[in-house]
Amino acid sequence: MNNKTLELPVLKVKQPIGEFFIASIKPRDLVEISYADVRRLICDERDLERYLGIQRPVSKKRVINIKKYIEGRDATFPTSVILSIDEKCAEYKKLSENSGTLILKEYISESGIEDENIQFSRIARVIDGQHRIAAFMDENNNCCFDSENIDFDINLSIFIGADVSEQANIFATVNLAQTKVNKSLVYDLTELAKTPSPYKTCHNVAVALDKEKVSPLSQRIKRLGTATVGRTYEPLTQQSFVEALVKFISIDPDQDRRMLLDGKKLKLANLKELQKCPFRNLFIEGKDLDIAEILFNYFDAIKDKWELSWEAKDITGNLLPRSNAFKAFMKYLKDDVYLDLIAKGNGPIPTMSDFSTYFEDIELKDEDFTTRNFAPGSGGQSTFYKMLKREITLQDMLEK
């Protein structure tokens, strides 16, 4: 331990999430204070997602390309690198209403417990900008940028004392808005949020159905947008699952989340609202497991009807387990099946047998689920949904 410090002139910014600081920093200083997981980015392929418990492959090619880019005469990083710094390592000296000096320093615990110490090299956890930092590092994790010949300041947004759920929220919001990260990963990060939200409920249901061994969707959901280690067959992405299910819960998921963050209670939906979002009251009442059980029973009925196609993993073009069929099944459940069962007194959790009655007279056979009959994309999805509603038959379609 030493008494090294770093002083940064900063401006204070006030936004709904709270106060944070913006500053300019030299690459060498940023590399030096960056949290260890980021410092190992090049060697171990780790970044904030890894810190948050989510693994996502880091593109070494992207780091190499950024290295080449920053050597150019017109190089620029106009958007901020976002840092989270423990309040024990930061001291703010106010100079005016919205400006001052932020002093960053290591922390030595007064209790003498070494694990509580925060070294200078572990001050900053990087919420966004891991690849840009890695581009300034060599294979030994030291700064390799020639700052004597090239001026390259990096602009920062600094959050002081943000806990892991706040960091996850900032990361998810920034990357979802900028579409830089696969949405499946972003939805996965919502698990860390302390406050309920429609997306968090959908994530919880996806995880429950994916993990449960007897679930019809067991190990079928690609959680992070890339293949899960140890699995060879994942026909659904978490993005497809969440974006289909959230329509059962909310017309405006972001507005619901903001209200819940503000500590406001959502009003129970009336019958008209339930026509659009049939699971809304289950969500408001915190009954995530009930939602999972409904989907379990529903897809169990589908599996029972077309078991060969549902279980087939090596048939090229098999529509049934994939996203298009899944979206059509979910639309059928939302618009035609669930509320009809509730009206008949089969609720709030209809059984597999209840759902099976809605598939009994559909004449489609296992061998009919092919791309020849159902084209990839929204067209095939729409055709399949019309068949579920009995608006057309397979024979009608083949005769066209």
Describe this structure in words.
- The chain contains 19 helices and 9 strands.
- The chain is of the alpha+beta class and 400 residues long.
- It folds into 2 domains: 163 residues, no CATH class; 218 residues, no CATH class.
- The strands form 2 sheets. A 7-stranded mixed beta sheet has the order 4-5-1-2-7-3-6.
- The relative contact order is 0.09.
Query: Uncertain segments of ≥5 residues (pLDDT<50)?
Result: 36-57
The strand count comes to 9
Tally of structural domains = 2
Task: Indicate the mean pLDDT.
Answer: 81
Radius of gyration: 26 Å
Strand order in space, largest sheet = 4-5-1-2-7-3-6
What does the main sheet amount to? 7 strands, mixed
- Secondary-structure content class: alpha+beta
Pattern of helices and strands: EEHHHHHEEEEHEHHHEEHHHHHHHHHH
Distance between the termini: 78 Å
Portion in strands: 5-15%
Output the number of helix runs.
19
Shape: elongated
- Please bin the fraction of helical residues: 40-55%
Outline of the structure:
The protein is an alpha+beta fold and 400 residues long. It is built from 19 helices and nine strands.
